[in-house]
Design goal:
The structure is a homodimer.
Chain A: H1 5-35, H2 42-60, H3 63-73, H4 81-99, H5 102-125, H6 130-155, H7 160-168, H8 174-202, H9 214-227, E1 235-239, E2 245-249, E3 252-257, H10 264-282, H11 299-313, H12 317-331, H13 339-347, H14 363-378, H15 387-399, H16 425-444, H17 448-453, H18 458-467, H19 477-485, H20 492-504
Parallel strand pairs in A: 1-3
Antiparallel strand pairs in A: 2-3
């Protein structure tokens, strides 16, 4: 083959950029589905997105890529360091996408496409009959275990669960998860109890009164999303029914939020959370944004970027004071919208059965339970049929309560229905990372918090851009944290943050 | 190769369906660009659509398709007739897409992507300096001539212009264009003169008075588009600035229209015209809609479907009477909205220099001029540098006027800037086809016109669906017309229609 190493690498770059644009196209098609598509076109739209995915897979498993990789790698030392890293990531992507036997790929498609409606049905029915889904969970865990085993083999991972984690949070090992989650498990139950006592002694928050009309909520949301630094020239915010999300392509981020007529803060928090995800994309280095080396890290770092905005920045007394002022401007003056009350309302801690409604303090406990259980099942230490008992036991230990209905228990989340074992830890890893990064950012620039209180997030973004966003995948997640904060991921920062906020910070 | 003929054909069907969905995806991305995309995302969106086009091209010129075709064709007689036709069309598509040398493909991309902004610039500047574009026109004509020569060769066409026509109106020969256009050239100049005299003697229409607010115009437009039978479950209508269009995918048609605050009929006519295009897609046989045999015919038949709605149906006295009633309901009563005046207004004939503003009667003359000139240049009978004189001479002959500024002359339309020689005839072929089809439809079901007067287009659609829409490309365009009307395309129907409408029909 007459191809030069340089040309081979150029071809690879072109093919990977194509892949990024195909994925971006599918995301925009999904956004259009929500915003504009007439309802009778749903079936065609699903086919379309399926075709893009299939064509992309075919293109990225084209045997010619194997030839190009070998050729390019034969002269890798001549490449600039960033290109070397890019080529390494291309190799990893190639190894993974060509390693899966096609029957496993097909089982994965089936589990993802059928698991989602099954979950939705269960949530609607609320019968919570474990026997109705036990077989499906077995299938999904078998699938996850088998794909994990393949990945473990080809990537030389220490365990199957490590391999599954790698699919969502590359560079984060099962050992890291275990060590860091242990700190949360040790500290949080007491912290939750102490916080609840403190909040009780301070008196509960007045419920938010007023009817928060859609247009007013969106005015408030748009104010917040603009304030935190989301770029509306390369993205938009829309109200929908359903779960909040950040979709769209790298250069056109589509944030969506639900609206709750009785409590505007729920939608607001969702908005700034999703804006954090969006701003991560918007801060990628444009020269590399469509290459493996220039894209976003895994879900752990991604969540750290949403949570640094939602939890670390927007729940500071500085920002809540500003938000309360704005809320009274938009919704009208009311006792429940006074600064002190809004502060109480937003920081209110109340253990509940449902993960997605959990507050900042109890949320990591939900994750620790799921991580513990999914690891045990994947590694063969626990049977799927033992999950209901193990779930209830774990809830009892962490929260002192357990669900009466499995739909409020192990049947509540979609992740296991669709075979996404290894996903859950990223939520708590993100919260830890957010605390650690915010500490480092505010230490480097003490003006960050006062400016947030003025509605100016630029100093925070000015720190996040060079330290996280624009670095893409130049290094792995652990090194990224180390470069940005001086140490690898350490849950102590998160625990300290929670203690400060919930036990030490005075009321407003 | 162990592949069976049956499997080879199945693979081909799958690949062609993928191609249709990729093209549909690109169209939805373009629609989203107009409806939802933030403006800072334009460059990425162009890349995205370019990638989809490139990936589709690569997929459809994959050498494996050549193997599949040979294999499938080896047992073509075992296939059902519709599959045989499908396979023939796949072969034609393969021959065409693999015949073009890559430098010609690249020149085509350049001419299309640079020609459009060049045209837009000229329209904005209005300097009309021929020397500024002469070189570009030469390049574009050279490109068209060379691609035509390749197509002539591989498809065995009688002439280069035949080959170019085939790209837009497959099955329509240069001979057909010449013969049918000659009938228009012979009849229309006199007819235009006679009509103008008649209209003068009847007194001109009052100008439409009133300010036609956007929301009211859209209410009126939506009423009309729904009335003519466009399915809003699989499509939508939006107001934009810029040219009206019918985009989107087969199962999700996106109609757009401009609004003119001073004359709501312009937008309305655009709407029902584009709805006609949309309804053609909506009427395709769903079992075959993404296969070559089940897609739409060329632009000639497509235009017949828009023009049968706009000109044949919506400009009947029956429908104008109904539309005037609706207009008064929506916009308020006014003398200029009385039935008789609206009828005069909509049928008003006034030769003008600009094709896109031309009325039903003068429009075909604009096309005949362009067709005559582009054929002559492509066939080497006329130099590009002689176009300005030839244009003015042709205008003088047809309309008795000629432009003072070339931007109102041969520089006005985008088609030649982007190398789309062979496109223009389809507009007039569509008008002819529409007249011929409407004659056949109303002869087969005399209730069609009265029902249109009731705002019920179902009887017309009930005829168009089995005779045109659902037949897709089962036969070629000539046979389609013959099957539907008993004869191949014949401009006499159009001429007769125009005479009836403009010289015989009484006022309202």
């Amino acid at each position: 083959m007459g191809l030069s190493a340089k040309q081979a690498y150029t071809n690879l770059k072109k093919r990977h950029a194509e892949s990024a644009h195909l994925q971006g196209s599918a995301s925009i098609l999904m956004s259009d589905r929500t915003l504009s598509m007439p309802k009778g076109s749903a079936a065609e739209r699903s086919q379309m997105v399926g075709v893009i995915s299939a064509v992309n897979h075919r293109s990225m498993t084209d045997p010619v890529l194997g030839d190009w990789l070998e050729k390019a790698e034969s002269e890798i030392s001549k490449l600039a360091p960033i290109d070397q890293r890019n080529l390494e990531l291309m190799r990893k992507s190639w190894v993974l996408s060509t390693a899966m036997p096609s029957d496993l790929v097909e089982r994965g498609s089936k589990i993802r496409s059928e698991g989602r409606p099954l979950h939705a049905q269960q949530k609607t029915d609320r019968t919570g009959n474990w026997k109705d889904v036990e077989g499906w969970f077995k299938e999904a865990f078998d699938y996850a275990r088998e794909t994990g085993a393949v990945k473990k083999e080809v990537l030389g991972m220490p365990s199957i669960y490590d391999a599954l984690l790698d699919g969502f949070s590359p560079g984060v090992s099962a050992k890291i998860v275990e060590a860091q989650f242990a700190k949360l498990d040790a500290a949080l139950p007491d912290l939750i109890r102490a916080t609840m006592e403190r909040q009780k002694s301070q008196g509960g928050a007045l419920p938010l009164d007023g009817s928060f009309h859609k247009s007013k909520q969106m005015r408030f949301n748009n104010w917040g999303v603009r304030a935190v630094g989301f770029d509306y020239e390369r993205g938009r915010l829309d109200a929908i029914t359903g779960h909040p999300s950040c979709g769209g392509s790298t250069g056109d981020k589509r944030i969506t939020t639900f609206l709750d007529r009785g409590d505007f803060t729920k939608s607001f928090k969702a908005c700034v959370h999703e804006a954090g995800h969006g701003m991560y994309y918007q801060g990628l280095d444009p020269d590399w944004a469509y290459q493996p080396v220039g894209g976003c890290q895994g879900m752990d770092i991604h969540e750290s970027q949403s949570m640094i905005i939602e939890y670390q920045a927007c729940m500071t007394p500085e920002f809540i004071t500003l938000a309360a002022l704005k809320a009274r401007e938009v919704f009208g003056d009311a006792p429940s919208l006074q600064t002190g009350n809004l502060h109480k309302h937003m920081l209110n801690v109340q253990p509940s059965l449902i993960r997605v409604y959990a507050d900042e303090l109890t949320y990591p406990m939900h994750i620790s339970l799921r991580a513990e259980l999914e690891r045990a099942v994947v590694e063969g230490e626990l049977e799927v049929s033992d999950l209901p008992d193990a779930w209830n036991e774990g809830m009892q230990k962490r929260f002192g309560v357990q669900p009466e209905n499995h739909i409020d228990g192990l049947m509540q989340d979609v992740h296991w229905y669709v075979g996404s074992m290894g996903y859950f830890p990223s939520y708590a890893l993100g919260a830890m990372g957010a605390a650690q990064l915010f500490n480092a950012a505010t230490a480097a620039n003490p003006d960050i918090r006062p400016q947030i209180g003025q509605g100016n997030f630029k100093p925070l973004l000015d720190w996040l851009r060079p330290n996280i966003h624009a670095r893409g995948c130049i290094v792995d997640a652990s090194q990224l944290m180390k470069d940005a904060t001086g140490e690898t991921l350490n849950a102590d920062h998160h625990v300290e943050h929670l203690k400060r906020r919930y036990l030490e910070e005075p009321g407003l």
